[in-house]
UniProtKB/TrEMBL annotation, chain A:
GO terms for molecular function: ATP binding; ATP hydrolysis activity. Keywords: Nucleus. GO terms for cellular component: nucleus. Residues 775-821 are annotated as: Disordered. Residues 333-465 form the AAA+ ATPase domain. It holds the Pfam family AAA. Belongs to the activator 1 small subunits family. CTF18 subfamily. This is Chromosome transmission fidelity protein 18 homolog. Residues 800-812 have a biased composition (Basic and acidic residues).
TrEMBL record, chain B:
This is Replication factor C subunit 3. It comes from Spodoptera litura (Asian cotton leafworm). It is found in: Nucleus. Its main location: nucleus. The keyword Nucleus applies. The lineage of its organism: Eukaryota, Metazoa, Ecdysozoa, Arthropoda, Hexapoda.
């Protein structure tokens, strides 16, 4: 037998299997997993109150045999009466087109008739509630004791209360008389020193009693355990051991052996099961050509209210009123269901089981198969477009993609295209058929990067961890079948240790069994090295435990820290919370704690700098030390560390301002970054805030205009400018870019903010300054040649004076930096001789006679130029510098 | 029309206002054919950069003042591109390798090699070496400093380095020994005052000598700050009065406020508030060691002699640890917490003595 029974057999035997198992079990007088949850066999049974059935589970261990016979009998008789089985027979004979009602009963019934719900579940919920209440009460009592040790200690000394020791009359015992300001006299008892010592001793004793509380706790637990042990061993002695080799498939893993075989055996939360099943049934229209009953939204909401944890995301809840669950083609809106949850909670089992229940043949594709794009496309095609030939019933396939978070991104994208593209292109392309079979994808990490494209199109179903109580009851059933004698509290511990992981718990059980033990004690559970869930405690839990004293296991903190990992985040968390914790009142403690944070910082920086991880193991010790300093018994709200990141973000903002100033500033002012931050930027706003009257710039005095120009010049040097922004109130505001006010001031920048008018004036002046400078740059080339020529003249004159001394240098070429360019002597133009056509020289007087006219036009900067058709008016060369 | 700081910066070694004998020596250094690597160090605002630019002008002539700004790109071994801004002329290139953080080694190796490996085409016509100026050498990582020491020797024929640092204590000895170290001490207050007077005279303003000394005092022997403050004073109010308010960098005020806060109340709650202030300072880019120094200076005013020693030694200790670590805020807060604890005890004891 593989993971699952053969599909064709299994289909008929879905219930027959159970019957057979029941009978088998009766023979062995062993409790069966199935029977533990009596089927809601007849509707008439459903009104039975949970209380009536309570003993079935609670006293399960003790009187299992007779209950089994009872329930077994009723069930076997009942099942034949259920309507479910009749259509099954019909089905095998007549139709291969099955209907939901036929196979599973009306799914609508299951969804809506709460009465028909397996009453077992309700019961367990109630039970857990009761348990929880008890637990809470117990916990409160313990806490009371822990929190007020002094209260108890004082209780012993209560005879020294004030009334006994003071009196208004003259007492008989030795006393001291006191009188207050009103003149009332009070007599206070005096005690001998021995008496006092005695009382102190008593107090001390009590205190120490409290201190050894932990050890007492251990003792008490031991006693309890011994008692349990005794009971069990007696039981074992009286009961004949069930023979071990009845297990035909002895080599089967327990996980497979006790895999749920029917809907009712599923351990996952009811809403989860239903959500998936409902989705599967939505496919009925297109797969089985059968009309699907879509649910009334109201009923769904009531249902989810009842469940309280209807964990459907993906906007199903939000959209269910306006969005039909089926699209135009009659397919569900979400083409893919995405199951996600921690490992070992039964996602794969759930998918397989529900697919079979809904009448499909599950086809699994997991990480062990090749998942390249091609292979995946083949698998998709074969699974969704074809159907098994060998299968006698011709059940349609249901593709289950296990461990899809490990699949490469292209593969997931292919799947998404497969699902979505068919919606739009399905009609055009005959080649590619729309997806007509349900696809269930399973993952651990919903937020894996490769799943990003899949999430929006998929129906996301969260499968949470199994609650400890349900897990332990299942474990009890397994133990009973395997002949392990285990106390309830041991199973509880086992379940708690597994932390919702069914697989781990059952494997651990099987491991212990394999060590040839017939009974299990607390030590077995606690001492096995394996089976601890590789739990990643989240950071908040770890932080919380750092700040609370743990009396039970003082050494557990190190483990908690290590399992939380992310020491940096933890350290940040401690840093942000310690002032409100144990160190609230005591500065020495705070100083000590911070010094350990320092220690951490130094070690971790060293580790990172040298890439030498030999000291890495000491980091959690620093945190543990903080725990021992800061832990208190009073509960405290721990905040998630956000401050450091927030600060880092702000720092980056200001750094970017500084860098943009650095980059924008002219090369001539280049200052180092630090000097800019510390000296220039803090003072620059003062320099850029001249005292001006708010008047038109043209009306300013010369000194004001001068200061305005200085400001504009400085702004150009440092690459600042006023930009116009539309403020929230719709007005345009001039603001400095980059905003050096933020970098310079600590929230007091209003000190030197300018009025809008002045800002505008400065902005205008600065733009003018920019133009002026570019003009200067443009005109620099001729200007420089002038300058060099004058320089050259100077150097000439200097060389003239030093002629005799530098004569030797004439041979040695002068270094570049000492060389000066020689002005090129412009030759004077000899007056051109005009020649006429025949080469005869024209006398000068004749030529010049024509010239004056031409000269007037070319030399004057104003001239008229007549063009045909229109007048081009006056043309004049205007330079920018003339306007400034 | 630029700021006074830039406008009145001396361009020539002979026109420097203070440390004149040093200027003479520098000038004679240039005239020698042999020009060594230099390590110029001194506090911020003492005039290191000014002297170096004068020196370069002496070496190459006025061509070094034609500066251009360029962004260079380097590729780290891990294929990350880092950009760094350089200021260069035809004769020199200036760079601040610490801008790229831990990748400074790549910048130094590539840049120095690039510059050094290009020989002058006509070496007879000019100086046969170019100059590379590296800023903030004391903040270079150890790796970068070690990368530097080999390149310094290897390319000495074509390239000279001028290193600028605030303090040489964090420059590895190997580099120190390869350079001629030149210390540029901060100007004295009277020197600053005279420079201020000079600048005001050039601007044809009248600066009262009282105000000049006050400015010099407030500027903490930092000439750049003094000049900026002086100009800010002028912008705010002219004609000067000797008792006018001197604007000063906001962060200094902020540190003083923080210190007052610490002294006012010693509780965990106050410590939480102080932390926010410290964070603010760090955000605004004030280096944590300056925060330490500023806090210590303010805090010890209220301590007796024995406690002064204690507090100072704690501050030194914590500042050292901060340099080893990564998160300055822990160390700052540790110092504040320690001080609060000590101070509270001290106050309680002295209160006890009174009664």
């Amino acid at each position: 037998m593989g993971d699952y029974p053969d599909p064709d057999e299994e289909y008929e035997l879905m219930y027959a299997d159970e019957l057979a198992m029941l009978r088998e079990d009766e023979d062995h007088a062993e409790p069966s997993v199935v029977k533990k949850k009596p089927l809601p066999a007849k509707r008439s049974l459903d009104f039975s109150s949970p209380v009536a059935k309570k003993p079935v589970t609670s006293n399960f261990a003790n009187n299992a045999p007779d209950i089994i016979t009872n329930s077994g009998v009723t069930e076997s008789t009942d099942i034949s009466l259920t309507p479910n089985l009749q259509p099954l027979e019909e089905f095998t004979q007549v139709s291969n087109k099955r209907t939901v009602d036929e196979l599973f009963g009306d799914i609508g019934d299951i969804d809506f008739n709460e009465v028909e719900l397996p009453s077992k579940r309700q019961k367990t919920e109630e039970e857990t509630d009761l348990e929880l209440i008890e637990k809470i009460l117990e916990g409160r009592r313990l806490k009371q004791i822990l929190l007020e040790p002094s209260g108890r200690a004082l209780g012993g000394r209560s005879r020294y209360n004030a009334k006994d020791n003071m009196s208004l009359d003259i007492p008989r015992w030795p006393f001291v008389a006191l009188s207050n300001s009103d003149g009332d006299r009070v007599y206070v008892r005096i005690e001998s020193e021995e008496d006092w010592e005695n009382s102190l001793d008593k107090g001390m004793e009590q205190m120490s009693l409290h201190a050894s509380y932990a050890s007492t706790w251990v003792e008490a637990r031991k006693i309890l355990e011994d008692k349990q042990q005794k009971v069990i061993s007696e039981e074992v002695a009286t009961q004949p051991l069930p023979d071990m080799d009845t297990d035909v498939n002895g080599n089967m893993l327990w996980v497979d052996k006790y895999r749920p075989q029917s809907y009712l055996e599923l351990l996952s939360d009811e809403p989860v099961n239903r959500a998936l099943l409902h989705w599967l049934h939505l496919w009925d229209k297109i797969v089985f050509k059968k009309e699907v009953k879509t649910k009334e939204p109201q009923q769904r909401t009531t249902f989810s209210k009842r469940a309280g944890q209807f964990q459907l995301t993906n906007k199903w809840k939000g959209k269910k009123e306006d969005q039909p669950e089926l699209d135009d083609d009659g397919r569900p809106h979400h083409k893919v269901a995405l199951l996600c949850g921690p490992p070992g909670v039964g996602k794969t089992t759930l998918a397989h089981l529900l697919a079979r229940i809904a009448g499909y043949r599950p086809v699994e594709l997991n990480a062990s198969d090749e998942r390249s794009t091609d292979a995946f496309r083949n698998a998709l095609q074969s699974a969704t477009l074809m159907r098994s030939v060998l299968d006698s019933e011709k059940r349609p396939n249901c593709l289950i993609l296990d461990e899809i978070d490990g699949a490469p991104l292209p593969t997931v994208e292919l799947l998404v295209r497969w699902c979505t593209a068919t919606v739009t292109e399905g009609k055009k392309k005959a080649k590619q058929q729309p997806l007509k079979r349900p696809v269930i994808a399973i993952c651990n990490d919903l937020y894996a990067t490769s799943l990003r494209p899949l999430r929006p199109v998929a129906l996301v179903v969260h499968v949470g961890g199994v609650s400890a109580s349900r897990l332990s009851s299942r474990l009890a059933a397994v133990c009973a079948r395997e002949g392990l004698a285990v106390g309830a509290h041991v199973l509880g511990a086992l379940a708690a240790r597994a932390a919702g992981d069914v697989r781990a718990a059952i494997q651990l059980l099987s491991f212990i069994k394999a060590r040839a033990k017939t009974q299990l004690s607390m030590d077995d559970v606690e001492n096995v090295a394996i089976g601890t869930k590789d739990c990643n405690k989240n950071i908040m839990q770890a932080l919380q435990s750092i700040f609370t004293t743990n009396d039970r296991e003082p050494d557990a903190i190190l483990k908690t820290i290590q399992s939380a990992g992310e020491y940096d985040r933890l350290i940040d968390g401690i840093f942000e919370n310690y002032l409100w914790g144990g160190a609230a009142g005591r500065l020495e403690l705070a100083a000590e704690a911070v010094s350990w944070l320092q220690q951490y910082d130094v070690v971790s920086a060293w580790t990172l700098r040298h890439q030498n991880y030999s000291l890495y193991a000491t980091l959690p010790l620093c945190i543990a030390r903080c725990h021992s300093l800061l832990a208190t018994r009073t509960p405290m709200r721990v905040k998630f560390p956000l401050q450091a990141q927030e600060m880092y973000r702000k720092k980056l903002e200001i750094e970017s301002i500084v860098s943009s100033v650095l980059r924008g500033s002219a090369p001539s002012v280049s200052v180092s970054r630090l000097a800019l931050v510390l000296d220039v930027l803090p003072l620059l706003p003062y320099l850029l805030a001249p005292n001006l009257r708010t008047a038109n710039v043209q009306l300013c005095s010369a000194s004001e205009r001068q200061s305005l120009r200085t400001v504009a010049g400085a702004m150009c040097e440092y690459g600042l400018q006023y930009g116009q922004h539309r403020a929230a109130d719709g007005l345009y505001v001039h603001s400095l870019e980059p905003d050096i006010y933020r970098a310079a001031f600590f929230g007091t920048e209003e000190k030197v903010r300018l009025t809008p008018a002045i800002r505008q004036a400065i902005a205008r002046e600065q733009q003018l300054e920019v133009i002026r400078r570019s003009e200067e740059m443009a005109s620099r080339v001729p200007a420089r040649s002038n300058a060099t020529s004058t320089l050259a003249k100077k150097s000439n004159s200097t060389t003239d004076t030093k002629e005799p001394s530098t004569s030797k240098d004439k041979e040695v070429p002068l270094p570049n930096h000492l060389q000066r360019l020689q002005p090129k002597v412009v030759k004077k133009n000899t007056p051109q001789v005009h020649k006429d056509f025949f080469g005869r020289i024209v006398p000068l007087s004749q030529v010049q006679r024509n010239d004056p006219v031409a000269d007037v036009i070319s030399s004057s900067s104003v001239f008229y130029h007549y063009q045909e058709g229109f007048n081009n008016a006056v043309r004049r060369n205007v330079r920018v510098r003339d306007l400034l | 029309m630029s700021l006074w700081v830039d406008k009145h910066r001396p361009r020539d070694l002979m026109k420097l206002d203070y440390h004149k004998d040093q200027a003479v020596r520098l000038k004679s250094l240039v005239q020698q054919s042999d020009f060594p690597h230099l390590l110029v160090y001194g506090p911020s605002g003492a005039g290191k950069k000014t002297r170096i630019m004068c020196l370069l002008r002496e070496l190459y002539g006025s061509g070094v003042e034609r500066l251009r700004q360029e962004t260079m790109t380097f590729t780290t071994p891990s294929n990350k591109k880092v950009e760094i801004m350089t200021v260069s002329s035809n004769y020199h290139i200036e760079v601040n390798p610490t801008d790229v953080g831990i990748h400074d080694r790549v910048v130094i190796m590539d840049l120095v090699k690039n510059v050094a490996q290009t020989h002058q085409i006509d070496s007879s016509g000019q100086r046969e070496f170019k100059v590379v100026i590296l800023n903030e050498v004391d903040d270079l990582t150890k790796d970068a400093q070690h990368a530097l020491r080999r390149t310094m020797e290897k390319y000495v024929a074509t390239c000279r380095l001028i290193l600028i640092a605030n303090s040489i204590s964090r420059v590895i000895p190997a580099i120190r020994s390869r350079c001629l170290t030149i210390r540029v001490p901060a100007p004295t207050e009277s020197e600053i005052a005279s420079v201020l007077q000079l600048v005001c005279k050039k601007e044809s303003l009248n600066l009262p000598s009282d105000l000049a000394t006050r400015l010099a005092k407030a500027a903490d022997r930092n000439l750049r700050r003094a000049l900026l403050m002086c100009e800010a004073c002028k912008v705010q109010q002219y004609p000067f009065t000797s008792d006018q308010k001197i604007p000063e960098p906001d962060w200094q005020q902020f540190i003083r406020d923080t210190a007052t806060m610490i002294l006012s109340e010693q509780t965990a709650k106050k410590l939480g508030e102080v932390r926010q202030k410290l964070y603010e300072l760090i955000i605004h880019g004030v280096p944590p060691d300056m925060i330490f120094a500023g806090l210590l200076k303010e805090l010890v005013r209220n301590c007796d002699m024995a406690m002064k020693c204690q507090v100072a030694s704690h501050a030194a200790n914590y500042e050292h640890r901060m340099r080893l670590g990564n998160k300055p805020i822990f160390h700052l807060e540790a110092f504040v917490a320690k001080f609060m604890a000590i101070y509270k005890k001290f106050v309680e004891e002295s209160m006890g003595d009174v009664f």
